[in-house]
Design a protein that fits this description.
Length: 145
Amino acid sequence: MPHSRLNILLIEDAEPDVFLVREALKSAGLDFELNVLDDGEKAVDYIDTLDRNANKECPELVLLDLNLPKRTGDQILEHMRHSDRCKDVPVVIVTSSDSPRDKAEASRLGATQYFRKPSRLDEFMRLGSVVRTLVQHPADGDDKE
């Protein structure tokens, strides 16, 4: 039985960015439930809880900032890729970093896509269409962002 609501986990500590992500997803016409964790330690604990409890559903998509308190996005991504239940969940890095090193490391750790947070609102809204495309075509995860 298909469920229409997309279960998305957002790991982001900046409240304005949480608001922008939510608006971008709405503007793309997505029906979603957004669970937000605001530090790296909470994210690792959440993944561990999912691994221990088969009754809890893994998110269908993770949006992950790189610069977080307590643990970095890279550490969380690596932890996820070693998770028993959530290792195959698509992860979109959503960060202000345009560093080639950050992009290369995210790719090495298994990020599905890399979306740099733009300074302009209309460009940030593109995240919604990136997510919509990814959930409609999960195998086509390589975008230039």
